[in-house]
């Protein structure tokens, strides 16, 4: 699905919220690797699970025509600095559900970009009939967990020793969900 672009002004930053186009594929591929190297909060090390520009181009196209999938980017001065992707299930038994994640370049943390991406994903999900939206987050990412809780997400489970970080220590993953009240 595609939404209309929006100009956002928050915390002394002006940026554009929009859906990506095929012309963003190369930049998204590079940005994903960059962000993976900036934080331990994501699932991948830099270069793991690599999505090439061609992969992104295909994903952007498929998401643009899918009824229950939304891909959004945050653009500052013509440069993509973050993105979110919410994917609905194609399986009949899970058609009421979707999962999402948010990635933002470290230099743009603290500007409220994640909050705006989350708000727009939730507004969209509510309008397309997604009754449950889920995510996973490393337990030490307390800022993200607090943000999700403010928007109605609750902890549904904890995966113990689910991941190993560069420091050699194990970390838990929190499973969170938000159910739309009907």
UniProtKB/TrEMBL annotation:
It comes from the Bacteria. Residues 26-181 form the N-acetyltransferase domain. InterPro entries: GNAT_dom. PROSITE patterns: GNAT (PS51186). This is GNAT family N-acetyltransferase.
């Amino acid at each position: 699905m595609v939404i209309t672009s929006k100009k956002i002004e928050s915390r002394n930053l002006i940026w554009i919220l929009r859906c990506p186009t095929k012309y963003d594929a190369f930049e998204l591929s590079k940005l994903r690797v960059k962000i993976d190297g900036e934080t331990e909060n994501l699932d991948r090390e830099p270069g793991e699970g690599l999505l090439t520009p061609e992969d992104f181009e295909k994903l952007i196209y498929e998401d643009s025509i899918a009824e229950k999938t939304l891909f959004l980017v945050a653009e500052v001065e013509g440069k993509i600095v973050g993105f979110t992707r919410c994917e609905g299930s194609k399986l009949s038994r899970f058609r009421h559900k979707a999962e999402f994640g948010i990635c933002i370049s470290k230099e743009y943390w603290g500007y409220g970009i994640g909050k705006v991406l989350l708000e727009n994903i939730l507004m969209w999900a509510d309008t397309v009939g997604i009754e449950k939206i889920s995510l996973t987050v490393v337990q030490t990412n307390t800022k993200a967990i607090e943000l999700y809780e403010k928007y109605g997400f609750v902890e549904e489970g904890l995966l113990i020793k689910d991941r190993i970080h560069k420091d050699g220590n194990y970390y838990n993953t929190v499973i969170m969900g938000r159910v739309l009240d009907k």
